[in-house]
Specification:
The chain is an alpha/beta fold and 353 residues long. It has one domain (11-173, 184-350): Metallo-beta-lactamase, Chain A (4-Layer Sandwich). It is 28% helix and 25% strand. It has eleven helices and 18 strands. It has helices at residues 48-55, 60-63, 74-77, 80-86, 101-113, 118-132, 161-171, 213-221, 246-252, 274-283, 299-308, and strands at residues 11-17, 24-30, 33-37, 64-68, 91-95, 138-140, 144-148, 152-156, 195-199, 204-207, 230-234, 253-261, 264-266, 269-271, 287-289, 324-330, 338-342, 346-347. α4 (80-86) packs parallel to α6 (118-132) and α5 packs across α6. The longest helix is centred in the middle third of the chain and has 15 residues, at 118-132. It starts with 10 loop residues before the first strand and ends in a 6-residue tail after the last strand. The protein binds zinc ion. The site of zinc ion has 7 residues, from α3.
Length: 353
């Protein structure tokens, strides 16, 4: 087990957490400033980002400067309200459509019916909290610098205007329908906030959120975005083929970058699939997953389960909930990333799709 200590002041860190359903990235931007992208937490526990910063001996209330909600799917939102309220120094950033009157009224209507998914509830709670505390959210849109500190700057690369407009149109009330009824058929992935984090010393990281191909096509076409090739890629949409575009690897990334992803499983659906793993490994040999199977169970768990046969037993994944990929490098322009894997995190070639 690698040591769990806080990075040095001039050391960049990108840590990705994911137990098999849930994704959160925690970034040290230098100088003791931290950024959190999305949120999840095990049942009845604090959000993983708060747990991690606590474990490093850091006070989230003072050290977190920016929290980004990439989109409102449940696997990215759990505990977001608690995270925002525990980090009063942090700016909160999300797609501007989520602050629109149209979205808020639909979300409020859903909250009243008790129907909404957890993700919508969390976003609604956060926006209400910000409103009550007079805090102004930072709106993410294409090619906008949303944060700058001494050690880094952060750009949102999406959503583009077209995705914004078509989303608002889809929220328009239709006669005779229940408010928000259409919400579940919408795909928040089209509003995902892809981010570019540029660290001092020249390294940068591209966070793909769950942005799908159509969104990436717009990013590639946009000639106002900052020009840079990233050495780290948080693979979009849990490695799904519907978020893959060759141009992203060719134009936005260094050759053979470090690719990191959080697997996803819900019911029978699971990502990445075998073909996704092969495709990503063909793009780069340095690819890692936060957990070694879409089930969240470790190989040991699967071995035990097989041998238990028909005996009914509940197996708690040994460490799946704490699977974490950690990348660190000095912001001196010369160093390279050091990769450390914790819990059930693994090289992607060892991932059991
Ligand atoms: Zn997701």
């Amino acid at each position: 087990m690698t040591e769990r200590n806080a990075p040095h002041s001039d050391e960049a860190e990108v840590s990705l957490f994911g137990p098999g359903y849930g994704e959160c990235a925690v970034v040290h931007a230098g100088g003791g400033d931290w950024i959190v992208l999305d949120s999840f937490g095990p049942p009845r526990e604090r959000p993983v980002a708060l747990q991690y910063l606590d474990a490093l001996g850091l006070d989230p209330a003072r050290s977190v400067r920016l929290i980004v909600a990439t989109h409102w799917h449940d696997d990215h939102m759990k505990g977001l309200g608690e995270l925002v309220s525990r980090c009063p120094e942090a700016h909160f950033c999300c797609a501007s459509a989520l602050g629109s009157r149209e979205f808020m009224s639909v979300a409020a209507a859903l909250a009243r019916t008790g129907l909404p998914d957890q993700g919508i509830r969390e976003i609604h709670a956060v926006m209400t909290h910000l409103d009550q505390t007079d805090a102004q959210p930072v709106w993410a849109m294409a090619s906008r610098r949303i944060h700058r500190s001494s050690g880094c700057e952060v750009w949102s690369l999406s959503p583009h205007d077209e995705a914004h407009t078509s989303f608002l149109k889809s929220l328009a009330p239709r006669p005779g329908t229940v408010p928000g009824r259409g919400m579940h058929s919408l795909t928040p992935n089209q509003l995902s906030v892809a981010l570019l984090v540029r660290f001092g010393g020249g390294a940068s990281c591209l966070f793909g959120a769950d942005l799908e191909r159509r969104g990436w096509t717009a990013v590639l076409r946009d000639d106002t975005k900052p020009r840079c090739e990233s050495s780290v890629f948080k693979v979009p949409h849990h490695g799904s083929a519907n978020a893959h575009l060759e141009g992203v690897w060719d134009e936005l990334l260094e050759p053979a970058p470090i690719a990191i992803l959080a697997p996803w499983r819900r019911g029978r659906g699971a990502l990445p699939k075998e073909g996704d793993v092969a495709r990503i490994l063909a793009c780069t040999p340095s690819a890692y997953a936060t957990t070694d199977a879409t089930s969240g169970a470790t190989p040991r768990d699967r071995w035990v389960k097989k041998r238990l046969g028909n005996i009914k037993a509940h197996i708690t994944p040994e460490s799946g909930a704490h699977g974490m990929i950690r990348l660190r490098r000095a912001m001196d322009g010369e160093s390279s990333w050091r990769v450390d894997l914790f819990g059930s995190a693994c090289h992607l070639r060892d991932f059991a799709a």
